[in-house]
Amino acid sequence: MFIDRKYIEELLAEAKNVTDDKIEEILNKAESMEGLSHTEIAALLVNDNPKHLKRIFQIAGKIKKHIYGNRIVMFAPLYVSDHCVNKCTYCSYNCGHKFDRSKLTMEEVRQEVIELEKMGHKRIALEAGEHAGECPIDYILECIDTIYDMKFENGEIRRINVNIAATTVENYCKLREAGIGTYILFQETYHQPVYESVHKAGPKKDYEYHLTAFDRAMEAGIDDVGAGVLFGLANPLFEVMGLMLHNEHLEERFGVGFHTISVPRICPADGMDIEDFPNLVDDDTFEKLVAIIRLAVPFTGIILSTREDYDMRKKLLNIGVSQLSAGSSTEVGGYTKRAKNEKVTSQFKVSDERDAISIISELLEDGYIPSFCTACYRNGRTGDRFMRLAKTGQIKNVCLPNALMTLCEYAADYGDDEFRKKTRAAIELCVPDIVNSKIRNLTIENIEKISAQGERDFYV
């Protein structure tokens, strides 16, 4: 098995002996955006020298700026079912918890999508509990078809990423054929004894089956996969090493690793006591982990959800995070309930409860370009093709133009006069950064068509 617990623990123990001079060498290598080896990542993880930490953050910020510029990809989750047969101690969907569970009908899915489209979202993460009876793959496929077909006014969902339980090659083939974007699955923890202790019962208790889900997905032709751990279950240093080994395994076997890494921290939820988890990650450690992930895998997107509050989100945007959720609901049917001012519960506590446009407006004020782009998936720039473009720097030729065009579209459809004014200023500032003159002129032309003629959905 590609996750060797003894190997990781020995790496972390030996890394404590790495000299300051060697740490400087590692940081010099990281600054060149070459990525890092296991031993180098371990050395940074165990090092607490303030001088080195300062440089880690500086390099992480430099890498983030060089590869991603000031673009932040926006998305929102859509929960369609909370039926679940697993008994996970950290999750409110735990099958042992007694509450009225629900699954959206297709009409209810449409209503949720209308609310998401009213917020301007173009990219969503489809979420569901694991229950073969209540939530089989055919139900997920029907949801996907319904979402893609649902268009409200100028709104439409152009990319559906899917976060459902580990499944079979046959089912992954069906997801690929349905036109999903990224298949997302959190390992939760790479530490097998901890994994088995927090997953008390259900199919998810099978560590190896869960761990090898991306292998089956890639065998089925899904070449964009998104990983993650739930920081707080096991030693966070071990978890980062597990992510890196898993990514390397996929690169060696399939030629491409993770498209994204999500970095959720365990937080309060119904039916669990957060004090039961001894490995909670404090803010300083969390910032360090995200920065080291950015150094280790420079070209892999890092996703942050509304589990984190405004202050933490702002810090992590500077050092690595490239995708952000906004206006999120983590309840089945939550967007419709919120629109009707009904009481909303959640799978877990959401720390940033502002509406989407408030978050997006603040990003603009902070100098970022909120991006609603879905062009790479639609143009087949996925998997190893995306990574080749990213590593050669060519992806910049399309990412910034697409970000500016989709932001202009968002402002025209959902912004007030003040928001549109801010958007115009941001676009005018960024257009000269498009190096390719042909694409720059095309972007200017398309922005004019969006603003003055009401045309939509331009991308390169």
CATH class label of the largest domain: Alpha Beta
β-strand number: 11
The CATH architecture of the largest domain would be Alpha-Beta Barrel
N- to C-terminal separation? 41 Å
**Unreliable stretches:** none
How many H/I helical runs? Answer: 20
Mean pLDDT: 94
Q: For the CA atoms, what is the radius of gyration?
A: 21 Å
In helices, the fraction of residues equals 40-55%
Characterize the biggest β-sheet.
9 strands, parallel
Q: Beta-sheet strand percentage? A: 5-15%
Count of spatially separate domains:
3
Label this structure with key terms.
11 strands; 20 helices; alpha/beta; single chain; 3 domains; 460 residues; two-stranded antiparallel sheet; globular; TIM Barrel
Task: Tell me what you see in this structure.
The chain is α/β, with parallel strands linked by helices and 460 residues long. The chain has three domains: 5-65, no CATH class; 71-353, Aldolase class I (TIM Barrel, Alpha-Beta Barrel), CATH 3.20.20; 392-453, no CATH class. 50% of the residues lie in helices and 10% in strands. It is built from 20 helices and eleven strands. It has helices spanning 5-15, 20-31, 38-46, 50-68, 106-118, 137-149, 169-177, 192-198, 207-211, 213-219, 236-254, 283-296, 310-319, 334-339, 356-365, 375-378, 383-392, 396-414, 417-430, 437-453, and strands at 71-81, 123-128, 151-152, 155-156, 159-163, 183-184, 225-228, 260-262, 301-304, 323-325, 369-371. Strands 1, 2, 5, 6, 7, 8, 9, 10 and 11 form a nine-stranded parallel beta sheet that branches. Strands 3-4 form a two-stranded antiparallel ribbon. Helix 13 links the parallel strand 9 (301-304) and strand 10 (323-325). Helix 3 (38-46) packs antiparallel against helix 11 (236-254). The longest helix is centred in the first third of the chain and has 19 residues, at 50-68. The protein is globular. The relative contact order is 0.13.
